[in-house]
Specification:
The protein has 335 residues and is α/β, with parallel strands linked by helices. It has 12 helices and 10 strands. A 7-stranded mixed β-sheet has the order 6-5-4-7-8-10-9, sandwiched between helices. A 3-stranded antiparallel β-sheet has the order 1-3-2.
């Protein structure tokens, strides 16, 4: 009862209720909230402190920034959703706030487009070498199954594409990425979903902010080849998988394109199918499945070009036995 009363008291103030209405649409930084509400950052910070202490919001530190989202616990999203449902449709104050929120989201999109325009040539060059993205995404959806999934974690979320792809199949999802610029891009993309179920946060694949068995779907899309310890990353990801849950991984098959190591920070030039499968089995997962997707080719005939000149993609998936809860792994940092 004390926790419920504290939450209700925290929400029972005009500015804080407006903040909760904004956060129901997605994550926001203090400065963004202050701009939307036309209030000072110190004042907004005081309101956020009260909402945090009442268990209604969570903090997501990200370098010099701190983003906020609705808390996922029973006194978080469920209570706020009920309270906001009682607001009159078209409330003039909330409607004005949401118009300003749309301007913030537009600014994020503009920043993302500017970033992509600087690096589009390099990314398009890599895309042209590997299996079409539509095929990779279709294979990942098939490997995961129809769901619905209670909670999805996407490791190395980058631009947020996996979160967008699986949004229709998940009740709640969160992406982890260490790069602030990528998180900004992902937030711009996820704003199109607009219901606050799906977000991103800054984090380290080797020190994930979740407990064992917390997610019933974990995805890792084109991340392992950047890591110094991909086996450790897979083990950490597998520890998140709940009994009966699944993990889906997509990455390059072995290749010989050294320029990717030199110009794009690829530490590994692909992975053999048995290598990642072995890591999944070592983590106690079963029903390991492997799907190989041929690389793209200039001629349209993959067989006409040497395999080392192209990028085939492999999709792995596996399930944790329904009655087995993973052990907690000690946190570790990448070298």
């Amino acid at each position: 009862m004390d926790a419920l009363l504290a939450a209700l008291k925290a929400a029972a103030e005009p500015t804080r209720l407006r903040i909760l209405a904004l956060l129901s649409r997605g994550e926001l930084a203090i400065g963004e909230i202050a701009g939307i509400l036309n209030q000072s950052q110190p004042r907004v910070s005081r309101h956020m402190k009260l909402l945090f202490e009442a268990g209604l919001v969570e903090r997501l530190p990200e370098g010099a920034w701190v983003f906020h989202k609705l808390a996922s616990g029973p006194l978080g999203r469920a209570l706020v959703t009920e309270l906001l449902s009682r607001l009159a449709p078209g409330d003039i104050v909330v409607s004005r706030d949401l118009e300003r929120l749309a301007a913030v989201e537009s600014a994020r999109v503009a920043a993302a487009e500017a970033y992509f325009s600087r690096y589009a040539a390099d990314w398009n060059r890599i895309r042209a070498l590997h299996a079409p993205e539509a095929e990779v995404e279709r294979a990942m959806l098939e490997a995961a199954g129809k769901g619905p999934f209670d909670f999805m974690v996407d490791i190395g979320s980058g631009q947020g594409r996996m979160l967008q792809l699986f949004a229709p199949r998940v009740l709640r999802a969160e992406g982890i990425d260490p790069n602030h610029q990528m998180l900004t891009i992902a937030r711009a993309a996820l704003a199109e979903i607009g219901d606050g179920r799906i977000g991103v946060r800054q984090g380290d694949v080797f020190d994930l902010p979740y407990g064992p068995g917390e997610a019933d779907l974990v995805t890792i899309h084109q991340v392992l080849h950047f890591l110094s310890d991909p086996a450790g990353a897979v083990a950490a990801a597998c520890a998140l998988v709940a009994p009966g849950g699944r993990i889906v991984i997509a990455d390059f098959a072995p290749h010989g394109l050294e320029f990717l190591r030199e110009a794009h920070a690829h530490r590994r030039l692909g992975f053999a199918a048995h290598e990642v499968s072995g890591w999944l089995e070592a983590a106690g997962l079963v029903e390991v499945s492997v799907v190989d997707l041929p690389a793209a080719s200039a001629s349209g005939d993959p067989a006409s070009e040497p395999p080392t000149d192209r990028l085939a993609v492999t999709v792995w998936s596996a399930r944790r036995p329904a009655a087995v809860l993973p052990a907690r792994r000690p946190s570790q940092k990448a070298a």
